[in-house]
Amino acid sequence: MQYDLEYVRMMMMEKISGTLEESEDKVLQQLIREDATIAGLWEKLEVSMAEPAAADIIKGLPGRQERVWANVDERVRGREWVTGEEPTDGEESIAADKAKHPVRRFPLARIAAAACFLLLAAGGGFYYRSVHRGAPLASGASSSAVPSIKRSIQLQLAGGRPIDLSAAGNIINLQEAQLKNANKTLSFQATEGKAAGLNTLTVPVGMDYKIVLADSTEVWMNSATVLQFPFAFRGNTREISLSGEAYLKVAANPSKPFIVHMPHASIEVLGTAFNVNSYDSGIVRVSLMNGAVKLKSDNKEIVLRPGMEGVCSESAATSADFSLHSFDEKDVLSWMHGIHVFYNASIQEISTVLPRWYGIAVVLDNSNIARERFSGFIDRNKPIQDFLENLKSTNSADYYFKGETLHLK
């Protein structure tokens, strides 16, 4: 049977905590019977669980898990948390595919179920780590708070006039349109004959924002994201440009295709919901929830179906390479609720995410830690120290603040 060892370890931890699904329990039992390596891993875990300290931890685990993870799980449970729609056929096919071939992609709920304790099977030892909430700073780490950086949502009109939406009132009257700016959402009513050109909406690091376009298309923008859009769509298409990450729920209009221009690629849709991400240089990711889209670049294109993610990579020869695979919707869209999920992510990768989420610079003082791995999540509504303490407890990395820069060592 094809398997991934990290996935197997995760299933074992869930089995001990009583959260493993029945279908996966059957897969795990089969692996234990048929594979000597897996059988040995399970035997070591059983021996570790017999220790008094481990027994005490397991005894108290359900209540502890419930307290620590209830708030996070509530925000990511069920499809209705974003779209209010029923699961698609694509989602069912993803579940079937995962049952056949476990892969290294865990939804947040799975990380939550198992993160209360870690088994280092290679050494045969059992290690428990509670999830820190407001834990004191480690020795050697600066007690300085994260620098407070003033950030705001900025709208630059086609004519060049800037508007600070974070400081502006709920109603903004312009020559081109009347804007409504409330509840982290911008909507508008264009003035006939006056709404020409592209406006630029910029969401800074550490923030998110929503905009309702002229055709009622909804765009949820993640941090460090820039959107160019008109107050009114003219002609036979509806076109916008976007850099960063956003979730779009496009209003259906078969006679007027909706086109999203991204770095190195474009997306054409008629009416659908999808997430786009261009944070990584030279890479565009499109994750389709429902409907259908075409991902295009350099005269190449692929058609996505619900539950599939298309990735367009710009090669050194400036020609686009496409790949297609399934994705976990809760992982991809967790950012809309202030959560960023890491599964087996390197500290180097994590160091590129923290600046977007907290608006701070990150420096790796010790290059040896760059490849160390971490599974867990960031909650943007919690202090960054909470995340750093969790990171430190499972890695050799320590940290300190120097001015407005976070140093990992």
Outline of the structure:
Helix content is 27%, strand content 32%. With 409 residues, it is an alpha+beta fold.
Could you explain how this protein is built, in words?
The chain has a ten-stranded mixed beta sheet with strand order 5-6-7-9-10-13-16-17-20-21. A nine-stranded mixed beta sheet has the order 4-3-8-11-12-14-15-18-19, with no helix packed on it. The radius of gyration is 23 Å and the shape is globular. About 21% of the residues have low confidence. It contains nine helices and 26 strands. The chain folds into three domains: 124 residues, no CATH class; 174 residues, Jelly Rolls (Sandwich); 70 residues, Phage tail protein beta-alpha-beta fold, CATH 3.55.50. It is 27% helix and 32% strand. It starts with a helix and ends with a strand. It has 409 residues and is α+β, with helices and mostly antiparallel strands.
Number of domains: 3
The first-level CATH class name of the largest domain: Mainly Beta
The count of strands amounts to 26
Structural class from helices and strands? alpha+beta
Taking all Cα atoms into account, the compactness measure Rg is 23 Å
Strand content: 25-35%
Determine the mean pLDDT.
75
**Can you summarize the main beta sheet?**
10 strands, mixed
Query: What CATH architecture of the largest domain would you give?
Result: Sandwich
Question: What would the CATH topology of the largest domain be?
Answer: Jelly Rolls
- Helix proportion of residues, in percent? 25-40%
Shape: globular
